[in-house]
Amino acid sequence: xxxxxxxxxxxxxxxxxxxxxxxxxxxxxxxxxxxxxxxxxxxxxxxxxxxxxxxxxxxxxxxxxxxxxxxxxxxxxxxxxxxxxxxxxxxxxxxxxxxxxxxxxxxxxxxxxxxxxxxxxxxxxxxxxxxxxxxxxxxxxxxx
Length: 144
What we know:
CATH class of the largest domain: Mainly Beta
Order of helices and strands: EEEHEEEEEEEEEHEEH
Number of helices: 3
Helix content: 10-25%
CATH architecture of the largest domain: Roll
Strand order of the largest sheet: 9-8-7-12-11-10-14-13
Shape: globular
Largest sheet: 8 strands, mixed
Structural class: alpha+beta
């Protein structure tokens, strides 16, 4: 991989130089290989190759939600990755923008629609907000 400017903009779009990268299957491969160093800089590491990554806000953007009977709620990212919400998550609010933690603290921004849909699962604890989806409630109930 040649060292090229790869950038993720605030709205979750990926760019290679000035060209928008729109093939989601390629974005998914790249996103799965994002790493972060101790200084908070992001890079894509594939095999022995490493390419810096410019991230305007956060590397991940949740754009969709899947709710099916008897299945954990899933969040779908712009890059087509998915996360099952089978545990509670802390919600972070920065400048009126909601974030959750996927791989690092507050590394995933929630789209407006996802945020409002997840508000059904909000649990307010003092000054903090947690997302407690049905699968997480079930696990807690089974342990009791």
